[in-house]
Amino acid sequence: MGCGTGRLLPYLAGRGLSPRGVDLSPGMVEVARREHPGFGYEVADLRELPFRDASLAGVVCWYSLIFLAPDARLRAFAELARVVRPGGYLVAAFKHGDGTGHRNGPGSRVGSLGIDFDRYWLSAREMEDRFTAAGFALTFQGSTPPEEAEPPHGYMLVRKTGSANG
Ligand SMILES: C[S@@+](CC[C@H](N)C(=O)[O-])C[C@H]1O[C@@H](n2cnc3c(N)ncnc32)[C@H](O)[C@@H]1O
Fold first, then answer.
1. Residue closest by Cα to atom 1 of ligand 1
2. Number of domains forming the structure of the chain
3. Which pLDDT tens digit goes with each residue over 36-49?
């Protein structure tokens, strides 16, 4: 979700998965279709996904949740939880911070082929709390060491709670 140029889809397919890509930016989806053909792509908002309840084995949000303004997060995490089946996984990459916007300096507004986003460095505590509230349980979290002018990168793997058998 937030597949951008689709660069991760061949990687995921190479590991035996059947990935599809979703991105809010039509321009990004156009690039993805051209650069990584053979996969299904859709223009959609991860707050309103074109998938049935519990229809996906997993979701990858690789640096896409960092574009969610605080007032959009509740809905986004609930929507992600809606589409992942019980026992399924969600993996997210993000940048660590206090959850507020970074309009000046290294985290300023960024373009995504036609759409401009504000970026937010998210706290691992908020991420875990939001995932837990939405119905996921934490499986793994990690982060890179801080570097100059760059916040640490955070990684979180969560699993949808409930019975995998229904
Ligand atoms: C930093 S890029 C990462 C792209 C890709 N995941 C990767 O790792 O190469 C983040 C992408 O998320 C998309 N995005 C941001 N907010 C979104 C939303 N609400 N719904 C769907 N896509 C969104 C942007 O258009 C952008 O292509």
1. 63
2. 2
3. 999 999 999 999 99
